[in-house]
Amino acid sequence: MPLIALNKKAYHDYEVLETYEAGLVLTGPEVKAIKLGQVNLTSGYVTIDKNEEVWLNNIYVSPYPPAALAQRDYNPKRSRKLLLKKSEISRLVGKTQIKGYTFIPLKIYTKNSLIKIEVGLARGKKKWDKKEEIKKREIEKNIREAMKSRI
User: Fold this and answer.
1) Which residues contact 151 (CB under 8 A, 6 or more apart)?
2) If you ran DSSP here, which 8-state letter would residue 77 be given?
3) Rounded distance, CA 25 to CA 81, Å?
4) 104 CB contacts (<8 Å, ≥6 apart)?
5) What is the pTM of this model?
6) Cα angle, residue 116 at apex, residues 94 and 72 outer, rounded to 5°
7) What's the CA gap between 41 and 65, in Å, rounded?
């Protein structure tokens, strides 16, 4: 499972409750650009429409230079369809309607030469949550350093 892109900001701004693996509907040049790592997930979000189709919005996939002629009218931030099982979609429809919950992209990776995306059901963190998490990490780091110096 070679990792292509990771959304570090998602883990900082959100508390991830559940994760799901989904396929992506892409064009040929988009596949090549993503496999080169030319993708940005930080401002991305996932929506579910009335037909219970899941869409990935606002992720940036830069144009693939060798396919410039085929991509004249290319929109790098276009909406891309996600492929999930019906049971997962129906479970998510109810959960995303709860106030404060959102559905965000976490990472893109390859699995058996297919491009997969891990999306997560998340709840936004407050400022004090973020500060508390930083303090915990700092304390754990200090403890590890103290243990190393004693050994």
Assistant:
1) none
2) T
3) 5
4) 7, 10, 14, 44, 45, 46, 119, 120, 122
5) 0.77
6) 105
7) 20
Token pair for 29: 């040049």
One of 3.40.50.10490, 3.30.420.40, 3.30.700.20, 2.40.280.10 is the CATH number of 3-125, namely: 2.40.280.10
- Strand 45-48: give its sheet, edge to edge: 3-6, 101-111, 114-124, 14-24, 80-83, 54-57, 45-48
Q: 88-127, pLDDT tens digit by residue? A: 888 888 887 788 888 899 999 999 989 999 999 988 877 7
Amino acid at 59: I
- Label the pairing between strands 101-111 and 114-124: antiparallel
